From TrEMBL:
InterPro entries: Acyl_CoA_acyltransferase, GNAT_dom
Taxonomic lineage: Bacteria, Pseudomonadati, Bacteroidota, Flavobacteriia, Flavobacteriales
Cross-referenced PROSITE patterns: GNAT (PS51186)
Protein name: GNAT family N-acetyltransferase
Domain N-acetyltransferase: start-end pairs: 7-172
SUPFAM superfamilies tied to this protein: Acyl-CoA N-acyltransferases (Nat)
Organism name: Chryseobacterium luquanense
């Protein structure tokens, strides 16, 4: 009996770098086609992916063993978050969600929403109760996901050369 759509969340390793970079490039193009200014200035790039993996920030969601989604999860470290125009919900430890990218092969299957469920479980497993994330004001897909997952709008941060909407979710 074969299992269909077996989904796993795991740390990315060096063998994943090429497929992750391909997925990021697809996402850069999707942002451009959607008319978003996000990711249109040479970031993220291959070096970003290599750095995420080498620093163990990179995670993937696999479907039947195939890498479908990439995310960088960083504990307590986003310098831009220290100066927010607005106010965070908490001041303690947190996980930062960066560089969410879904493969074109898996687009429209709700995997980005599923990813956030895995991120919440992972964050709780690390005894951390806050997730912080930012996105471009014109990244409507991500804004919808954050709203549907119960993230609170906290204000604006200046990151990667632009103003980003910043959100936080407190896990109980």
């Amino acid at each position: 009996m074969t299992h269909k759509n077996e989904i796993h969340f795991r740390k990315a390793d060096t063998t994943d770098i090429n497929i992750i970079w391909k997925i990021i490039q697809q996402s850069i193009e999707r942002r451009r086609v959607d008319g978003s200014a996000q990711w249109q200035n040479g970031y993220p790039n291959l070096q970003t992916v290599e750095s995420d993996v080498s620093k163990e920030f990179g995670y993937v969601l696999t479907v039947d063993g195939e890498v479908a989604v990439f995310v960088a999860l960083i504990f307590n470290d986003e310098p831009a978050y220290s100066s927010i125009e607005g106010e965070w919900l908490t001041n303690g430890e947190f996980v930062v969600v960066h560089r969410v990218a879904v493969s074109e092969d898996f687009a429209g299957q709700g995997l980005a929403k599923k990813l956030f469920d895995y991120i919440e479980d992972f964050t709780k497993s690390q005894n951390v109760s806050s997730i912080k994330v930012d996105t471009n004001y014109d990244n409507l897909a991500m804004l919808k996901i954050l709203e549907s997952k119960g993230y609170s709008y906290c204000g604006e941060v200046f990151l990667a050369g632009g103003v980003r909407k910043a959100f936080e979710k407190v896990l109980i």
